[in-house]
Amino acid sequence: DQQVKQNSPSLSVQEGRISILNCDYTNSMFDYFLWYKKYPAEGPTFLISISSIKDKNEDGRFTVFLNKSAKHLSLHIVPSQPGDSAVYFCAASAGGTSYGKLTFGQGTILTVHP
Amino acid sequence: DAGITQSPRHKVTETGTPVTLRCHQTENHRYMYWYRQDPGHGLRLIHYSYGVKDTDKGEVSDGYSVSRSKTEDFLLTLESATSSQTSVYFCAISGNGNQPQHFGDGTRLSIL
């Protein structure tokens, strides 16, 4: 039972354009969402997060949008750069007995072409 | 970068042997986690710790045990390794359960 899904295994964009990565979740108890970037042979690196009390959070070129009614979040990267080429994972956690436990999506491979 | 060291970085072993992976942190963070990454599954939580000697199971804990006798060290043990445990293992730390987790660079484990 995949509670967090990234339905696009890969995405290819041109340098300077917008990259939009999508993530859907099924567990209505999730209240904290994160995006991680991962390069080969390295651990995931935290990018940006959002709590369920917000619908948008920005950090430089990265913006995360949360649509709670649709159980959907997205990561926008503007402008995209070749160094953004990596695997992107969305993750979610709930409170209560699940406090601190992250559930990850399968990942989306982003390729940014010069 | 968060001070997280995983050892060994690579290991090849045989089915049925015990294996212990170590995660060492220098951040004095309370929470530590072990994940495995497999194609098509993203990262899945194996076990986590919310303090010295305080641990709990994650999504895929069968066949694994953990120990945390000091704040800085979190050990993952495969009591009798199986080929299905071939994977990349990541350790993560966080100051509390609602802060972003920061990851080590992983251990690639192959069980033949």
Notes on the protein architecture:
The complex is a heterodimer of chains A (114) and B (112). In chain A, 0% of the residues lie in helices and 55% in strands. Chain A is built from no helices and 11 strands. In chain A, a hairpin with an 8-residue loop joins strand 9 and strand 10 (103-104). Chain A starts with a strand and ends with a strand. The radius of gyration of chain B is 13 Å and the shape is globular. The mean pLDDT of chain B is 94. The chains are: A mainly beta (114), B mainly beta (112).
What's the quick description here?
The complex is a heterodimer of chains A (114) and B (112). With 114 residues, chain A is mainly β. Chain A contains no helices and 11 strands.
Element layout with pairings:
The complex is a heterodimer of chains A (about 110) and B (about 110).
Chain A: E1 4-5, E2 10-14, E3 19-25, E4 30-38, E5 45-51, E6 56-59, E7 62-67, E8 72-77, E9 86-94, E10 103-104, E11 108-113
Parallel strand pairs in A: 2-11
Antiparallel strand pairs in A: 1-3, 3-8, 4-5, 4-9, 6-7, 7-8, 9-10, 9-11
Chain B: E1 4-7, E2 10-13, E3 19-25, E4 31-38, E5 42-51, E6 54-57, E7 64-70, E8 73-78, E9 87-94, E10 102-103, E11 107-111
Parallel strand pairs in B: 2-11
Antiparallel strand pairs in B: 1-3, 3-8, 4-5, 4-9, 5-6, 7-8, 9-10, 9-11
